[in-house]
Amino acid sequence: MSIRLKILFIVFLLFETAIAQNNSTIKDIIYASVSGRDLKLDLYLPGGVDNPFLMVWIHGGAWHSGTKENPPDNLLKSGYALASVEYRLSTEARFPAMVYDIKAAIRFLRGNAEKYGYHPDKITIWGSSAGGHLAALIGTTNNNRELEGDLGDYKDESSSVQAAIDFFGPTNFLTILSQSTSHGINVRASALALLLGKPVEQVEDLAKLASPVYQVDKSDPPILIMHGDQDNQVPVNQSIELKEAYDENGLDAQLVFVKGAGHSDPLFFSEKYIQIVKEFLARVLNK
User: Fold this and answer.
1) pLDDT of 147-174, one tens digit each?
2) Buried residues in 157-196 as b, exposed as e (16+ CB within 10 A)
3) Beta partners for 43?
4) Domain assignment present for 15
5) Total structural domains in the chain?
6) CB under 8 Å to 229, separation ≥6 — which residues?
7) Phi, psi (degrees; rounded to nearest 5) at 255
8) Which of 60, 63, 149 is nearest to 106 (CA)?
9) What is the DSSP string of 153-220?
10) Terminal CA-to-CA distance of the chain, rounded, Å?
11) How many CB atoms are closer than 10 A to CB 73?
12) What is the extent of the structural domain holding 166?
């Protein structure tokens, strides 16, 4: 390594360290209430960055479990703000309750952008597994009144997102079980029935509404899709179907296969694949 490169590397490390030392976290911000229950989000703000872009993180857990705690902080270290959103699980409320919640959170976040100091106009939604499904669905239903809901105090704000990142999320509820291994069926069939209120075959119209593949239209934002080629819970064909739907509409979609990765594999959050996320965001948010 040349002396110049060594100096640049040291400067970069000092910059990242300075950001990390000045990061701030605001926990349990109430963004809406429903049926006497407060819905909360955690906000992570990078130090030393004026008006950062905002990432909205949606946790996984087969729609019936998981929490907003411990979201990936890879992009916080690179100067992005991050909001980790709590939403009603399928054990508490059926679809589309969780979509109403997330869209309310986005309206809240956009309405409070000046207060907290992040960019209001270019919001990215990101999730993994069930959270990846919800991120893709939020991205493909910008301005869809049927899925907007009316929660919260920021109804005049937009819930639209300008980019979406889907890590190994289901995208077509009408095909996922036929594509699945026996293990995948055991995991997903009951989870889908709980989410939709009945088995998929009994509520096909609702299953279509809940499937990003059927919601894609020419107004949708760019999307980055990542899927492990050894995933035995969510078939890789689910991500292929979403990419094909984007392609058919002439939209910006990037599909990355993670070689050797199973479902929820730590590989997705390794430096190699987070770099792909950073490059995607740099390309679509700086237009």
Assistant:
1) 999 999 999 999 999 999 999 999 999 9
2) bbbbbbbbbbbbbbbbbebbbebbeeebeebbeebbbbbb
3) 26, 83
4) no
5) 1
6) 236, 257, 258, 259, 260, 261
7) -110, 125
8) 149
9) S-TTS----SEEEEES----TTTHHHHS-HHHHHHHHHHHHHHHSS-GGG-HHHHHHT-HHHH--TTP
10) 33
11) 18
12) 22-285
**28: amino acid identity, one letter:** D
Backbone angles phi, psi at 30, to 5 degrees: -80, 120
Distances (CA, A) of 48 to 14, 71, 79, 119, 217: 12, 21, 8, 14, 38
Asked whether residue 11 is assigned to any structural domain, the reply reads no
DSSP H or E stretch at residue 114: helix 113-116
* DSSP designation for 150: -
Domain membership flag for residue 49: yes
Return the CATH number at 166.
3.40.50.1820
**Sole residue written with tokens 């907007």:** 148
The β-bridge partners of 51 are none
Residue 10 within any structural domain of the chain: no
Query: Closest by alpha carbon to 74, among 118, 44, 106, 50?
Result: 44
pLDDT-based confidence at 184, cuts 50/70/90? confident
Give the Cα separation of 85 and 76 in Å (integer): 16
Six-digit token string for 123: 């919001």
- Nearest-angstrom CA–CA distance, 100 and 146: 10
Q: What is the pLDDT of residues 93-131, one digit of tens each?
A: 999 999 999 999 999 999 999 999 999 999 999 999 999
